[in-house]
Predict the structure.
Amino acid sequence: MAIRKAKGVSRRGVLKGAAAVTALSAVPTGWAIAQKRPLKIGLMLPYSGTYAKLGENITYGVEMVIAEKGGKLGGREVELIKLDDESKPELAPQNADRLVKRDQVDVLIGTVHSGVQMGIHRVVRESGTLTIIPNAGNVAITRELCARNVYRASFSNWQPAYGIGLAAGKKGYKRGIWVSWDYAAGVESCEGFKQGLEEQGGTFVDFLKLPFPQTNFQPLLAQIPGLEVDIVGAFFAGGGAVQFVKEYAAAGLKAPLCGNGFLTEGTLQAQGEAAEGIETALHYGDGLDNPKNIAFRKAFLEKAGREADVYAVQGYDSAQLLAIGLEAVNGDIEDEENLHKALENAKIDSPRGPMAMSPSHEVIHNMYLRKVTNGQNKVIGIAAEQLADPGTGCKMT
Ligand code: PHB
């Protein structure tokens, strides 16, 4: 289902633009003609299922930047075309195709689920559509499958999990396991946790997994006492994270629970007491006291009627990145050389703190150590400063 939401281009505005073009040159160029129409941005995100709230918050973040800039990016009106990808990898190629071929979007912002991202990637690598990833962290996208037209404004699955593995090892935990869904985000975060823990002298014991988006956690929880571990790390997000954290607390296990920050992101109200004290690593924290974050959280609360989270930040930063690129070329998205130069060199003032692009189009940013305190992800340190993904195997063409 494609929900079209045209940001009104007034007829007067169009006529005014047309008059200006005619005044400049008797024979309008292709670019002058194209400039008259709004820039089409496809938002391919989950608006249903366990990741629905993630997709909504990303959308709010994108809309906030567009509103801040008076409804225009790089001087051009924008039209948002929203498509619910349902976090279903099997539907991803046809959904991405609809946006690229039928709707002919100029830019695609999507998505949340790593498996769906792979479907998008196949389509946009071929079409060359400028693509900005507002969440999905699968490492291949900025490693061996990196592409000139694809940028990530979120994180790689390795980054926050490596951060919490390091932090757990530094705290002296010796034997650790990872619990997650059995798909790219779970598997790759497990690898990050293992690497971080082992670098600090710990031992990685096992990976307990179940298919996405199942939430039958009891058989996994029942295995934990027998593994004799002193730390349990986990990746779950959205509705699944709410349930896992509650069931973990109810199980009364000895080993503390930690994770990459998605475990407690946008979920704290629903998790209540069960989340108190959980330590996680992530590129964001509620209480970051930089001026951008303070203003962002206030504006988000006004718009959405709920507290901001990392997904809102990632949507906001995806649009901030796009705005930097489009401003550099005055909205002429066809000016690829200057567009990419601006995107690659972007230094973004993010609510997360400083954020830059690596050569493989991955974010370089701090991994904060957070602890749930009185219903907030309070930043208690930095697990890894200005962390870049290794970008292994990326050959940018
Ligand atoms: C992913 O599928 O890459 C993913 C989904 C939700 C998250 C983080 C990563 O919160």
